[in-house]
Amino acid sequence: MISSLIGRAATVGAVAAIALAGFGAARLDKSIDLNVDGQLTSMHVFGSTVGDALAKSGVTVGEHDLVSPAADQAIEDGSQVVVRYGRKVTVTVDGATTDYWTTATTVDQAMNELGIRALSGATLSVSRSAGLGREGISFTVTNPRQVTITVDGATRAEATSAATVAELLNALGVTLGANDRVVPAADTAVTEGLAVAVQRVELRTTTATEKVAFKTVKKDDATITKGQTKVQTPGVNGSQVVTFTETWVDGKLEGKSATGTDVTKAATDKVVLVGTKAAPVAASAPVSAGNTSGAGINLANAAMWDRIAQCESGGRWNINTGNGYYGGLQFSYSTWLSVGGADFAPRADLASRAEQITVANRLYAQRGLQPWGCRSAA
Question: Residues 266, 239: contact at Cβ < 8 Å?
């Protein structure tokens, strides 16, 4: 009887233990929803925290990833856990590059979330609808810039996303001729407020007939007295056709340059014969030198001396050019003194015309006209 009661009590205890174990297991097993980047998974988790759920599902998160609730938060039956992976986004906006981290899954979402500036008409290197994988993405944003362009006589303002002046002209349908100019250069980066000017350049060819001047050639001639010349052949000008290239910029002549010549008539040189024959020694003058003694004034042959002075010094009786010869008749210092010039002045240019003629008559009485280069003017 007693043994029967003991056996029955043991059975009841065993059943109670099993019931308690089942109750504990039921409390640890939780049904939750796990949303990873929009992919929803329902799962059973034997654990008490979000971290336990992530570990069971094999989801590893880093410092840039978003987990909600946090990994150390408790979970209940029916809990929802959201994981958003961080993506590195490198964006270059109008030449300035910045790195961002975002949990967005498209370019458009990332730009909105990060506040990336993209004006109306901006150019993106990728589509706004492009997806963002966990590897991240790099793209550029080029916002339109206000520029002015002057072409074909008109200036207008434009908003453009072109990167260079060449791209701007292409976008505006502006074609350039082979000689046209662009300021600034076509490879210049487009910046806010840039002023671009296109100059239409036209090259024109013109011709003109011009004179070809003759040259003067001198030849020595022993049959002509030294100091005399003679024209053997008169000079005759020639002619030539000169070709010019004219540069016209926006309808205005900027300049021209000679690019070729064609001589149509050759010039004839002027040939001048130059005498080399020594002048003959003058014969004794047929006229008297007058009274050559004493210090009195002697104006004999005054007209002859005036002619010689005109040739020697241009008739200037007081001339002193520094060439070593003085006065109207160009006495050297030593010659002037040798014939008594000191009776009147230390140099001929300091003596009067009458005094110079007087001294000239003294020299003339000794040597005739041989001392004067202009003796032929006598």
Answer: no
Tally DSSP H helices, then E strands, for the chain: 7, 20
Q: What is the CA radius of gyration of the chain?
A: 59
Q: CA-to-CA distance for 10 and 141, rounded, in angstroms?
A: 79
- What is the C-alpha to C-alpha distance for residues 93 and 145, in angstroms, rounded to an integer? 12
Residue 365: both structure tokens together: 């009485």
CA 282, 284, 290, 292 torsion-angle sign:
positive
Q: What is the pLDDT of residues 242-297, one digit of tens each?
A: 999 999 999 999 999 999 999 999 999 999 999 998 876 544 445 577 777 667 89
List alpha helices for 199-344, DSSP H: 302-313, 333-338
**Separation of alpha carbons 282 and 112, rounded Å:** 118
CATH number belonging to domain 30-85: 3.10.20
Q: What is the pLDDT of residues 91-126, one digit of tens each?
A: 988 888 999 999 999 998 899 989 897 887 788 889
Contact 292, 361 (CB under 8 A): yes
Are the beta carbons of 178 and 197 closer than 8 angstroms?
Answer: no
CATH number of 203-277: 2.20.230.10
| C-beta separation of 13 from 60 below 8 A | no
Q: Of 327, 321, 340, give the one whose Cα is nearest residue 372.
A: 327
The CATH class of 145-199 is alpha beta
CATH 3.10.20.30 spans which residues of the chain? Answer: 87-142
DSSP, res 315: T
| First-last CA distance in the chain | 193
Instruction: Tell whether pTM > 0.70.
Output: no
Task: Let me know: does 201 contact 248? Beta carbons within 8 Å.
Answer: yes
Q: Write out the CATH class of domain 302-377.
A: mainly alpha
The one-letter amino acid code at 320 reads N
Q: How far is CA 179 from the centre of its chain?
A: 17
CATH superfamily of domain region 87-142: Beta-grasp domain (3.10.20.30)
